[in-house]
Fold:
Amino acid sequence: MAETLTSGKLTIRVVICLAVLVVVMCLCAVVGTQEISLKKVFAGPGQKPGENIDYEIFVGVRLPRVILAALVGAALACSGVILQAILRNPLADPYILGISSGAGLGAITAVIFGITWNFWGGSPMAVFAFAGALGTVWLVWFIGRFTGKSQVTSLLLAGVVINAFLSAVIMFLTSIAKSDQLRLTIYWLMGNITEKSLSVLGVSAACILAGIFALFCISHRLNVLTLGEEEAKGLGVDTTKTRAAAFGLAAFITAVAVKLSGLVGFVGLIIPHGVRLIFGPDHRQLLPVSGIIGGIFLVIADTLARTVFGQEQLPVGVITAIAGGPFFLFLLAKYSRKVSWLK
Amino acid sequence: MSIIKVENLSFGYRSKEEILKEISFEVTSGTFLAIAGPNGAGKTTLLNLLCGLLSAKAGSINIDTTPIETYSVKELAQKIAVVRQEFIPVFDFTVVQVVSMARTPYLGTFGFESQTDKKFINEALEMTDTARFSSRPLAELSGGERQRVFIARALAQNTPILLLDEPTAFLDLKHQVDIYDLLKTMQQEKGKTIVAVTHDINLGAQYADVALLLGADSSYQHGYAAEVFSAEQIERVFGVRGFTGRIDREKFFIPLGKFAKDSSQIGRKPDSSA
Structure:
């Protein structure tokens, strides 16, 4: 990308990506174990319920699920972009750094201890997930401050340890849980997208989109922040405020995504990296485009998860981890620089 | 008119040790100040105080007759641009992207550059001769080219004051001279006030109008560059003996160590060598 980014160019690219997202979502909504025809879907709901089953499957089951996958993908990809910018580490990802586990631990605590009280209308699961995510973000940042600028791997190591610790706590909690909760909880931990009610979908969509929009408004400051604290201050960026806002918002959208779908890994790593390779590192573009591509990626991954084995559905986290694990290792080798044969 | 006014400035990283002790000096608008001194004398510390990154323990700094602490981060970035040692950013930003970041303190809500912003960016690229590789990532440039990019960024920031921290460290001779030529041009054509921390006394003496020599014992000398960078001062502050010479109006100083091949040169004064 030689030229400078203008709002016009960005709008065109975002609209094109959105169009691709919509097409992919429609295609994936048609694909499934139960075959449906688009022609019948477009015929409308019919006079009485149950008359047009194809329409009801498409609108009532497939479409919400596809929208859910797109939202989760967008949130995780954007969260990855933000974490990479603030930690100045191209290998950061909400899953790898244990932030997803933090949110998961929060959510699972609420479920297993049967906490039902409400905060300002938010369900306890969402509030606990957010608290867990925020706590882990703080912990990661705190460790990151000690590990210095160039230590790409030490921060990741800290993330792995946090992740392992939180996972152990989660496993402990699931092992003392009642058996009827068990299978669902384990599936959720592996990253599982299921059909959700429209109201849940609406609230989550509003939260995630608002979070991404707010992040977009500070994305030009994130560009400067990736040069380091001193440089950013010299260029007029209040680093403390910007960092706090970015961390808070990233934790927020991660928490919403985790509450919806459990621990889906590596989306925040693969997508921003791919987008950066093609479109360059300018966050004003990287953030929205990564969000949309992240949505596309997870919609496809979820479609695979629910169709590959016929009636038996796989957790989508299994698909993303199988794709993401090797990719992560490749990047680790590339950025560690010590491995010369990959450079 | 003095654009920077430092009065009785003291600073230490620990409560009892003071690196800088009661320093006072003024920088006249449109002049070139070189700050020199041995390692640990507090050159970079002083620079960080001047750009608001550190705050003084005692004394005051006024920028444009206003105390530095009353500026917001954004306002200060419209007064002072800082160039540190060149580095490769973590992400693959291109030259034009890095230079564009200079406009951050002027951008609106969504952070897109206006036509005015673009004018400043292009001017800075032209003036520093970085326009020809403006679409290349910084990692692909040489150290000298990269430093020009950071100077271009400082130029695009359109500030009256420019602070530089050892801008020519790790650069070869030609690039060192190029950078100083560029700074002098900016001073003379754009009327910028330039404050540069430097280890190179010879280039400092050649280009700077005024000099501040910081000693490791918290002493300091401030005055015309030609007077401050005298053989006696340098030998006293740096604790190294050397040979001082003069070619026309340019003075130079060559340090001579224990194993110098002709130790009879030590202590020769510029006058006697003429």
Notes: The longest helix of chain A spans residues 53-86.
